[in-house]
Give the backbone structure.
Amino acid sequence: MNRSVGIIANPASGKDIRRLVAHGSVFDNNEKINIIQRVLLGLDALGIERVMAMPDISGLALQAGDKANVSFAIEMLDIPLKNSAADSIRAASMMAEAGVGCIVTLGGDGTNRAVAKGCGYVPLVPISTGTNNTFPVMVEGTLAGLAAAVVAQRVPGVREEGIRLARRLDVFRNGELIDFALVDIVAYAERFVASGAIWDPHKIQTVVLAHPRPGTIGASAIGGYLPQASPNGEVGMWLELGDGGQPLLAPIAPGLILELKVRSWRELQVGEQGTIAISPAVLALDGEREIPIKAGEKIEIRLSQNGPHVVDVTAALRAAGQGGVFMTNNKL
């Protein structure tokens, strides 16, 4: 039986430029420490014996472990810190190689995208502590810890009922897969990556969505607010924006509700793709400008079902309860 879980907490999440150009609040490290503490207590209550954690300059996991008073010691991974997404990718890869049964993440869409690059088939419990949070969810740390424990220990029925395979948007340059996003990709009329965040609506040209959802902040809301959007984001969406388009209000950042002009849109089924028509430009993946497009390059985006496995906390705990896990005379 697997009794090990990984924890990856991004100390930089919830602190980007959208605190300046929009109205995002700061998610401070003290609250992250408190969340991790409650995760650890949830893991301990259901018999997890080994917890591996990504190190960081703020010592989030170590401080949480000192406060939690749990029965296990937290193993800090030996990673030379780069204070970038590379830390999360490397940590997730090391945890997968070590055989953890589940990984709990604290961060936003960008953090989880980095973890997805390294975690392989290990299921994720993504706790929202970022700015744009379409992929992770707001969940109490105690419940996240309990859910991670029953997933890691392969409680009967939990994996079938409580885990889903996420979509992703694959990016191809001249036919070669170069990257992917979990939520959205935006072609931004800008030559340089610069600050990273997207906030000027006049520069948004193309929006590609894995899930158009109205109950989110960021590019995914643009498609979600169209009258023609499918309920619950069952299909992806490809939108072209610009002058002459239909005006649409959307919250593209916290407190930043702007009018955009939607010239055209179409549904995107899994396996379908399209070509980015503008260059030079910059591609923003899950809210962060990352890939410059040079003139003459062919950039294609394809909707794929090859994203990470994600834990539905409520469904996982329901299945565990139905299996008698929380009856105190039954021990995992």
DSSP finds nine helices and 17 strands in the chain. The chain has two domains: 4-166+308-322, 168-304.
